[in-house]
Design brief:
The structure is a homodimer. Chain A is of the alpha/beta class and about 325 residues long. Chain A folds into two domains: about 35-275, Rossmann fold; about 280-310, no CATH class. Helix content of chain A is about 50%, strand content about 10%. Chain A is built from twelve helices and ten strands. In chain A, strands 5-4-3-6-8-7 form a six-stranded mixed sheet, sandwiched between helices. In chain A, strands 1-2 form a two-stranded antiparallel sheet.
């Protein structure tokens, strides 16, 4: 079998085949391809203007690592800080922290570590009651909350996450299927905050596939956590990703077409009709929420109630 | 193996298993179930008010036959006429006409037969140029046009078609994927016309599945055309229906949830933003269109150009 040649430089041994684009690259040209695409996404959506001092949420996985490494490579002057949230998942969290420490040290990027244990509640402890069978839901809520609070307390204007095209399409499919327009309108590359209690949220990998992120860390020779979170077993998010790939196999380009339709056609319509959600201050922690008590504080209270006694967040609330 | 009992009357030998509802019925109770559901759909969407004198487009297949038989059974006083369009597809069209004649005679319903051949162009003749590989597209255009014109010329207020839930979901999936909002907003159980050049379009089977329609004609003992149109081979509409069923297998209730989300959540939003399309009179035939010459007249002209000479529709137009 002849060696595959790089589509750009013609060198033999093109290891990275970008399947949706049907093109193969050697290591060097793949990195160039990925970083040019990342730069183009950042500029297209005006991300530089809303992330002057970003806090990059780093899990140790391929996506968030690609976001951090990619941003530092493409915009070396960007003042980047990394945040690692120790979720307290035995084994998995320690391994993730080791990998995160390694990459931030290599890049010379400051690392902030936030431990849920220090606030008394790890993710396994939070996944109780109706969240027992869906720990990913409560884990997502906690992470979003912690990212935002840590960013604002430390004076960052924005939180950068590694959400990529596959993540977005998977959730979009679910939201469109169920007609959850209020949530669909928030699935976008940049979500502006209020500058006070809500940091901007920026997704520089919005147009990258899982495959593209994986190839990038591989081509760069960067270690990432390859094992899955032990709590993810049976999560709907996994079976939905499988379904999306099955649809893609039948309709090549499905994910890209659908994402483009969302951004170019639906978002403008949804924005016009739905407008911005009305936010108020959480009665417990003071951070923005659409209900009386934010979902983070409600989760904390559930744990406390199960333990019996101890008061959540510093202030007890009813109902 | 014990015989399956009817969920309603308890009789043994319940032959009809409505898979999405996980319930089985005997012949008599299935007919009752189907006709009650049909009545409920007709009343829910206010269809009786917009089809005082409907023209039911009858192809001889399970869906349009179910629509005609169902409407006559549930609303015996409704003044119904059937329209059969002879598409001129060798073998298939003759067989369809035989079946259509039989059911309308049995029901005592007046049958109007419109032959494309009389206007000089059958569907196989129209499926030329860019329609050579997608005859279903041009066939749909021609049928919509003929239904509307025949209805108005004969003084009917509405055209009734057999479009069911599966048809709608299949097209919706495609429109949502591609962000074709202007077309998605027209996918609804009732599309009002203008009373002059555009008849109302009514879909009483909007909430029925393929399975439900098939069972209905079977339970009623009515003959329908079971063979597929010979031109449908390789049509995208078929592979899309297969895909939808594969998704349904992974996400039970997918079709019903998606259709409900479309009707309850998306349609109100899309209507608000998109409004009604601007229609003008076709320069050739005078019937409503969004462009200068309607797609029917353009198709006719293509055939004429291929034959060389003869003028389409009675009036020659440029470009």
């Amino acid at each position: 079998m002849p060696a595959i040649r790089c589509a750009r430089c013609g060198a033999e041994g093109a290891r990275y085949h970008v399947s949706f684009a049907r093109v193969s690259f050697c290591d060097k040209c793949y990195i160039r391809y990925y970083e040019r695409k990342l730069r183009s996404t950042v500029l297209k959506y005006g991300m530089l203007k809303v992330m002057r001092r970003p806090l990059v949420a780093l899990s140790g996985g391929k996506d968030s690592t690609s976001a951090l490494v990619g941003l530092k490579s493409v915009f070396p002057d960007l003042e980047v800080t990394a945040l690692y949230i120790d979720l307290g998942i035995p084994g998995y969290s320690e391994e993730s922290e080791r990998v995160v420490r390694k990459v931030t040290e290599e890049l010379g990027v400051e690392l902030v570590v936030h431990r849920l244990r220090d606030e008394g509640r790890t993710v396994p402890e939070l996944a109780v009651g109706r969240f027992k069978r869906k720990p990913c839901a409560i884990c997502g809520t906690v992470k979003r909350y912690v990212m935002n609070r840590v960013a604002l307390e430390r004076g960052h204007d924005s939180v950068v996450t590694g959400h990529n095209l596959d993540d977005t399409v998977e959730v979009l499919f679910e939201l469109y299927r169920r007609g959850q327009l209020e949530e669909a309108v928030r699935l976008r590359p940049v979500l502006l905050g209020d500058g006070v209690k809500l940091a901007n949220r920026v997704k520089p990998l919005f147009e990258m596939t899982d495959e593209e992120d994986l190839y990038y860390v591989d081509a760069k020779g960067i270690e990432v956590v390859e094992s899955w979170c032990p709590l993810v077993r049976g999560a709907k998010t996994v079976s939905r990703k499988v379904l999306i790939h099955e649809i893609e196999a039948k309709i090549p380009g499905f994910r890209h077409t659908f994402l483009k339709a969302h951004v170019k056609r639906y978002l403008p319509v949804l924005e016009k009709v739905l407008g911005q959600p009305v936010l108020r201050e959480c009665a417990v922690c003071g951070y923005p929420t659409t209900s009386e008590v934010c979902s983070y504080c409600r989760a904390m209270r559930r744990v406390v109630l199960q333990r019996g006694g101890e008061v959540a967040g510093g202030k007890a609330t009813g109902g």
